[in-house]
Every structure is written in structure tokens, then in C-alpha cells.
Amino acid sequence: MTRIVLFENIHPSAREVFTAAGFTDIATHAGALSGDELIQAVQGANVLGIRSRTQLTDEVLATMPDLRCVGCFCIGTNQVDLESALMRGVPVFNAPYSNTRSVAELVLAQAILLLRRIPELNVRVHEGFWDKSAEGSYEARGKTLGIIGYGNIGSQVGTLAEAVGMRVIFHDIEAKLPLGNAKATSSLKNLLSNADVVTLHVPGGEGTKNLINREAMLAMKPGAILINASRGTVVDIDALHDALKSGHLAGAALDVFPTEPKGRDEPLDSPLRGMPNVVLTPHIGGSTQESQENIGSEVAEKLVNFLKSGASKGSVNFPEVSAREVVGTARILYVHKNLPGAMGSLSGLLAERGLNIVSQRLQTRGQIGYAITDVDGQVDGAVLEALRAHPMAVRCELITF
Ligand code: NAI
What we know:
Blueprint: E1 3-6, H1 12-20, E2 25-28, H2 35-42, E3 47-50, H3 58-61, E4 69-72, H4 82-87, E5 92-93, H5 100-115, H6 118-126, E6 144-148, H7 152-163, E7 167-171, E8 183-184, H8 188-194, E9 197-200, H9 214-219, E10 224-228, H10 237-245, E11 249-254, E12 278-280, H11 289-309, E13 330-337, H12 342-352, E14 356-365, E15 368-376, H13 381-389, E16 393-400
The protein binds 1,4-dihydronicotinamide adenine dinucleotide (NAI).
The site of 1,4-dihydronicotinamide adenine dinucleotide has 29 residues, from α7.
């Protein structure tokens, strides 16, 4: 029986997927464990589900010879020693796109609120002032939204923005198929000088560090709005502070920061704190009940798919093989060293036992190769033992149909 151990209050949608697929041995832990407590809790597990706080180090993974796959029920996977998992033949899955819609909705909401100066007016009414005026307030309809990074989130933002009548332009370093009436601009500068609202949806890292610097802000239209729900390093915060102070930019919404507080009691260190035309949120762009539910089912489905078919497509650390229709009576999942002769050893061992290969797919990644082989005939325990004992083998599993 496959034993599943879940940590960190993973959404119940995951359990629903597992039980519907016939996996009912599920242990849950509300929090994240560490050290000996974690090692004790994971013993005997074939499948592990964690979120961002459980550290799956090489030391922990080494105590789990029966572990078949890991699900990170979140976006990031740096809490897992991915290389160690790979070398042990364990694929790791995550949910990179489950919160796309949540981020897109927040961005559109911020754009509309800032165009109407609602953050400032809200503060004023709370303070006892009644500034009834249309000064500096605009409809979103007919305004131009400039999207930098037209990937999963950026393109979704564009679709939502068109629904409220915005004109959508975008800039991406790759050629992208425009959705709806969105149009690619000839350059970043062109986008900056034409957009009433600029929103950032690029990855973090060196390639996008301070992409929106002082010069880029000067290229923006006077009175424009800047929204960043991508990565904090993309915007030069001091330059943004100056652009807002001088009135060149009318407002900003930031969900991410170059340095973010580690816990709830640590304040954000930023010159933007206290500015009434700046909306600051604690990196919650993707944090909604719906995204948690989506993450639960998306990752559980990937794990179930792997357990039932061997498909590793979507794994973050493993050679990606998608499982096609079954054409034999048994399927052998063979994780091996990526060296000459590894596949020959598999074919040789199967031929010796009179097993005919009817379909085979292979993919390699670094030092590891992964082959899904469908065979006709009875694969008994002795065949499996022989495959596992081979010096090229890292791991070998059997699925029968
Ligand atoms: P994605 O990978 O689907 O799209 C990123 C796009 O940016 C790609 O089309 C890529 O070609 C483009 N790009 C890369 N470098 C560029 C550059 N220098 N100039 C213009 N375009 C460039 O990523 P996805 O899923 O849309 O995520 C976008 C960002 O949102 C990421 O930084 C991600 O970490 C962040 N994010 C933030 C969340 C939050 O809670 N605030 C939640 C989820 C994601």
C-alpha cells in the first residue's frame, strides 16, 4: 500500500484527489517538523507532501529508501535538496501556475484603485477629511496598460484589463502570441512612454535587476502608475520614491520588495512606507483560498499521475517523460545512471527473461536517465530484483495493468 505523508496544512483538495485515485493511507501533520521529529514522521512514506517550511535535506532523504516522489504544494522548491532527490530517483513536483489568476485580479484592482486615487482618499476619510473632488481621478476605460513580461500572469492581466475597456500593450524579450487585442511594443522605452499604468510580470534574477531604474521611470508618462507584483529586485526603490515625491508618477502598488521581512512581527524597511499614494501588500499576490485549493489538486494530480503511469512531466528536478497509453501488460520505471550501456543492460535483462519490449521512452538529465518501458508478459519479483541489483540501476519500480 502506498503511504502518503502530508505536512503544513495542505489544502483538503489534495486528499480528495488521492482518495479518488484509490490512495487512502494518508497521514497529515498540521505544521512543519524538523530534525529527528521530521525524520521520524517520514519513515515508511512513499509520497511526501510539503509546503515551503519543511526542509527536505540530503540527510532527511537518505533515511527514506522507499520514497517515490515529493510534492511541494507551493511555487518554490528550494526547501528540497533537488539534486539529492534526483540522485535517489525521486521526482519533485510543484504548482507553478495555480495562483496566476489571483495575481492578475489583484493587479487589475490596484490599477483601478490608483487611477481613482482611492488609497489616498481612503486615508483622508479615516483621518476625518471629506475631500469630495474629481481631481486626478480617472476611469480605467480607454487607458493604456503596459505589461512588461507577457508570460502566464502578464497575459492573464491583459485579458482582464481588456474586459474593463483598457488598451493593452506589452513588452517581452521573447516573441509572444498576443491575446485579445493586446499589441507588442517595439521596445521597453516605447511601452514606458505610452502606458498610463505599467505592470511588471518578469522573473527575478540578474537579467531583470533594476529593470525599472531612474531612467526607465523618467521615460514613463507624467502621472503614470507603476505596479510590481513580480519580484522586488526589478524596481529601484529609491528612484521610485523620488519619482513619487516629485509627482512625476501618480501612484504605485508594490507586493514584493528587494528585502522582505522574515516574519509577521518584522516591519518592512522601505522609504515608501507612509506614502498615501502607494499601496504596500505583504507578498500576497498569489495568496487566496482558490489558489491554495488549486495548488492542492494540481500537485496531488501530478503525484497520482506519476504513481499510476510513471509520468514525470512537470517535475522540477527529474528527466521529464510523459506517459502515453499503456501498450503492454506491465510497465517498468527504470531510473539509471546516465552512462553508456545503461539501456543495454535493461534490454538484456528483459530479453534473458523472455520479456518483449513493446514501447519505450527515455529522457536524461545530468547524471540520471529515466526510461518508461512497456513489456508484454509476466514481470515477477525476480526480474525486478535483477534489475535493481544491476550496477547501472538507481531505482526500479513496476506498474501492472
Ligand atoms: P512566466 O515565466 O510565465 O513569465 C515571465 C515572462 O517574462 C516571460 O514571458 C519572459 O519571457 C519574460 N521576461 C523575462 N525577462 C524579461 C525582460 N527582461 N523583459 C521583458 N520580459 C521578460 O512567469 P509568471 O508565472 O507569469 O510569473 C511572473 C512573475 O510573477 C515572477 O517573477 C513570479 O515570481 C512572480 N509571482 C509573484 C507572485 C506574488 O505573490 N506576488 C505569485 C506568483 C508569481
